[in-house]
Design a protein that fits this description.
Layout: H1 17-27, H2 30-33, H3 36-48, H4 51-57, H5 62-70, H6 72-89, H7 93-105, H8 127-130, E1 133-146, E2 152-165, H9 168-178, H10 191-194, H11 196-212
Antiparallel strand pairs: 1-2
Helix pairs in contact: 1-6, 3-4, 3-6, 4-5, 7-9
Amino acid sequence: MSFPKPPVVKSDGKLTENESSFILNDCLKPKHRKDATVLAFIDSFIKCKSIAQASEECNIHKSLGYQYRHRKDIANAIQKLIDKSAVKHGFDASEIIERVKEFVDFDPISVQNPDGTYKSNLHDVDPEARRSIKKLKVKNLYKQTEDMNGMKKKIIIGEVIEYEFYDKLKASELVGKEKELFKNVTKVEHGITKDMASILLDSAKRADRFIEKKPDPITINAEARVVND
């Protein structure tokens, strides 16, 4: 006898309305649960993880967004929604390690052009290399010239490109600890154990000096006498 298989539900990476409503009802205060601005801020913050951007998208001042983010019930709701999404998406420790491995395997040659110049447009950089970039600065170099009419203007004559990448050594340590390649070894030494030989030797020398300087015994002759009253 065969049993019907449950339908396969394909997730688009978003929580269902029931899942979100349950968390919001459980965490938020009644006034915040009914506040459309608070709900919009929570939804935006979960997507962008930025108070400034979420505040701008909700048309509120950044200071108010900061207050929303740090209210206990709203912060709790945001954290639970993020945690639930992480479980739903299969975002676990193994995936994090894979991302960290990208920092370890990153080769700076990927940001250099064949002619020796460096890429200033992120669209020209591979996604794996882009994730390894911590900071990118591009500064244009200008030269002031004059045209035939004596009008001064600036023209771009070059670029100064500065890349900053995530710490490869730190990434290697994280991957190594996960694979149990690096282990912290703690060595404890007690002074009494380390210096035992010298302590025993000094004690023996003191005993020898005491024996050498020991005075001769004194003999006292005592006689018993009877006293008659």
